[in-house]
Amino acid sequence: MIPLKKKILMLLSNAFDPDPRVQREAVALASNGYEVHILCWDRDLKAAEYEVLDDINIHRVYVQSTHGRGATQIAFLGLFWIKAFVKGLSKQFDYVHAHDFDTLPLGYALSKIKKAKLIYDSHESYVDMLYSHPVWLKKLIFSMENFFLKRVDLLITVGEKLRNHFEKRGAKNNCVVGNWQDPEKFIFTKDLVASEREKIGISKNQKVISFIANLGIERQVLQLVEAVKQTPDIFLIIGGNGACRQLVETAAKECRNIHYLGYVKPHKIPMYTACSDIVFYGFDPHNPNARFSAPNKLFEGLAAGKIILTCDFGEIGKIVKETQCGIILDSYSVKDLKKAFNRLLSENSQEWCQNSLNAGKHRYNLAKAISILCIRYNQL
């Protein structure tokens, strides 16, 4: 008799279109013998209610809303919880895997009723992400999270600093499954990279910086664009949406050494990373969440063997210093960025690139993340 597959119900507060981290974990677990279902929130009412992608069963709950509503989102989130709870009750599962705090109360309720193991996958410090929200709301969420941390069967998070933070707050069984990448996906032939660089308009003597992310004010986009404008031998490939999109579009029209990609689908990021020499990561070091920052950009850069350019904060600062894979800026000022550009243009970058590639291949790679994830699931 063939044993039945263990079933996982993942909970997600976006429409999985797809969410890169959730997709990597779901595919890994499905490939290792689990039956994976994702129950997620479609705020735009556009995606299919049910579909199967990469052996992952995706079930969407329709509650119309938008991102960025602030505290008023609570009512819409509550309606999502109710609809998802009803839908979840109709399914059989052995594990509930809640991605981020906004699905954790729902996951806790379903795990109790279904007598399933509860996994809390915290992609970031949720309370610190809400720095502009009312103090009473942040205190409430912090207290609720402390309650659940002591009751989850496994806490998964993105970096060692955040793991340690949660452990001190009561999450005893915990591990790091980083946003680590597969280096094989960042390998392209020299001819293909040269062809793509030519299409973009990059000259042979230019050093290329890439930054493909949310283009919010906190991402230091204004300073980056201004510094590139003043350094003709630096070429900037920039992509994404956000508050600074108009600024970037205007700069790209005015400057021959800036190319704006618009929104970039995840599967295209490896090629644009391969076309670059340097991966930039900008963030507000004073943002409460900066102390835990372990961004995708870092691990994409390591997987591709690129120089990392950032400031000294969070997990990213720690890793760049430990692996010596890039330049730590004193600040994100135009002056300090131009100073770093001059170093990049004048110094031999081979050692930085090799250190980056070694870290991406041997310490921070997707195979290692998958292994940790599956071992911890098996232990449950």
Task: Describe the 3D structure.
It is a single chain. This protein has 380 residues and is α/β, with parallel strands linked by helices. It folds into two domains: 7-180 and 365-379, Rossmann fold (3-Layer(aba) Sandwich); 183-362, 3-Layer(aba) Sandwich (Rossmann fold), CATH 3.40.50. It is 43% helix and 18% strand. The chain is built from 15 helices and 14 strands. It is globular, with a radius of gyration of 21 Å. The protein starts with 6 loop residues before the first strand and ends with a helix.
CATH class term of the largest domain? Alpha Beta
Q: Outline the biggest β-sheet.
A: 8 strands, mixed
Instruction: Encode the helix/strand succession as letters.
Output: EHEEEHEHEHHEHEHEHEHEHEHEHEHHH
The CATH topology label of the largest domain is: Rossmann fold
Number of domains: 2
Number of strands: 14
Q: Any idea what the CATH superfamily of the largest domain is called?
A: Glycogen Phosphorylase B
Low-confidence stretches: none
Strand content: 15-25%
CA-to-CA gap between the ends? 23 Å
Judged by helices, strands and strand pairing, the structural class is alpha/beta
Helix content: 40-55%
Radius of gyration: 21 Å
Q: Strand order of the main beta sheet, please?
A: 3-4-2-1-5-6-7-8
Average residue-wise pLDDT: 96
Q: In the CATH hierarchy, what is the architecture of the largest domain at level 2? A: 3-Layer(aba) Sandwich
Work out the helix count. Answer: 15
Shape: globular
